[in-house]
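pasting for ref
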Amino acid sequence: MNITLSLHDRCASDRQPNQNNPVLDVRVTGPEFSLEENRMALLRIADVAEQFAAHSREILHLVRQPTSLGRDHFAVLWSRGIGLVAFYGESGSIRGSRRGAWLLESPAHVRSSFENPFETLQNASKELESLAERLGHDGALTTSLVAIFNGPVREIRVESGENGQPFASMTLDFALARNISHLPNLLRAMDQKSQALTNGEMEILAEAFERNAFEHSETNARHDRATQVSEVDHMSIRGAISGWQSRRLWAIPSIVLAAAIVYYLVRSLVHAPSVPKPETIQKAAQRSQAPGMIVIELPREVQLFVSPRMYQSRLELDRALEHGEGERFLPATEQIVIFDSLTLAKGVYGYFKVDNAWRKGKLLQTFQPADTIHIDNFLGPLP
């Protein structure tokens, strides 16, 4: 993918890190991966990237799930290149080329095929191209594609094919291996040998990729919820029909039994006092866990991150975002926060991203099932 940028007007002051404002050398953002082995793999990659950044004094951005690709993947942004990386769990001997399905021979010598990683990543990279093209035209930028196999792979043989978009396939251990200058093989696969992005340009691109990632995440979540509701509705209908059919067999005996009960009640003239039925502990617990809602009205569109914890610094907040803690909302002038009523009664903290800086947390608290909070001013930036 070849894309062009013209960010120098906006980012001239960001070419060098601000020494008075220490930031993370490696920033990991975006929705969490679906598979645990891929989460652990990314943690190892981030650890090696931090070691490289400590020696090179560079800043790297790793943005999880930046496209609609249907597998765990992430984008890499650093001064000498940009990459799109996807994880594959296949094991055994792997052979392929840039066109057509790849062949897999398992350790049990069973042969099969799977989707072509190059074609899949190339299609996904077009989404990043579309995002980057909105930033103008100035210098050319090439996105490298990398397929990482984090299963027990015996060998990988991939034909180089024609010259075109850079592509590499490797095992996780090979991707983590470093040369004498601490440059991991993963970054070497996307190294353009010269400066491709400034720190400010990386920040803007990472923000756009991250926003796209959360939009896809929310779309997928809504689709999953709709599917679950549909399945529940079908089950309820089938259950109702089945129950009605079974109740028909018991209709006559039930009527006779009800008539007998009424007869003996009238005959005995016993009127039991009306005593309110005490609630069980389970019902009380369910009521305490009932959902509560806070509607936040804002003067402008801003991102929101909500957590029961109070973070004292940007470093703590970045780590929380990296580990997928709390709940993050896309920019909007009205945000709807839903937690159980007990949590909202204790209070949660809302962190707003204003002018590209996360602000100190505001306490969001209510004792009502639903409440509205109007915010005119934001707190100062996190140190």
